Amino acid sequence: MKGVDVLIRAAAIVCGELPETNFLIAGWAGTKYAREMQELIGSLGLETNIKLIGQVSTILSILKSCDVFCLLSRSEGLSNALLEAMTCGLPCVATSVGGNPEVVEEQRTGFLVAAEDAHGSASRIMELLRNPSLRAEMGKNSQLRATKEFSVDAMVSRMAALYEQLLTTQMPRERR
Predict the structure, then answer these.
(1) Distance CA 52, CA 60 (A)
(2) Helix, strand or coil for residue 46?
(3) How far apart are CA 85 and CA 70, in angstroms?
(4) How far apart are CA 118 and CA 44, in angstroms?
């Protein structure tokens, strides 16, 4: 569901053109899927470029050390991982599925790509890696958007405003 295999295939394309690029993939270590992904990495000769780092308790510090965040899911809700990456000031390459288009503003905070599109994903990743000023601008925009629109304070304010609106429009006149 998370499209890690698509990310690995995109990484192969990126590393073919930018061989010094490194990818970190967090989550689900020790599973059958992780073993399959490690085999895919090996079959593509990417053992030095891609690291499966398993479950991580210090994900924010790891995100802050990255240049780009990728979420190539086949299906997604509203991704906490995507919001965390944006909060850390990362430009994002994400599939246009689920809640991702609500979070990522195309060409402002990152790029949206089609699910299963390793070539399109690789192209967008390389565009960000090759253009530090674009990467920095999108990262700044990501951080501002995540903080303004998706922080706990922002969501609580919107929820309180919604309740206030419902109370004032739904209560009978004699109870107001």
Answers:
(1) 17
(2) coil
(3) 9
(4) 14
Beta strand residue intervals within 1-120, DSSP E:
23-26, 50-54, 69-71, 92-95, 110-113
Q: Identify the CATH number of the domain in which residue 18 sits.
A: 3.40.50.2000
The tens digit of pLDDT for each residue in 130-160 reads 999 999 999 999 999 999 887 666 666 667 7
CB 105 within 8 A of CB 141: yes
Alpha-carbon dihedral sign for residues 166, 169, 175, 176: positive
Q: Is there a contact between 49 and 22 (Cβ–Cβ < 8 Å)?
A: yes
**Do 103 and 79 meet the contact criterion of CB atoms below 8 Å apart?**
yes
29 occurs within a structural domain:
yes
The DSSP element (H or E) to which 162 belongs, if any, is: helix 152-170
pTM beyond 0.90: the answer is no
| Token couple for 46 | 């990417």
For the chain, how many structural domains are there in total?
1
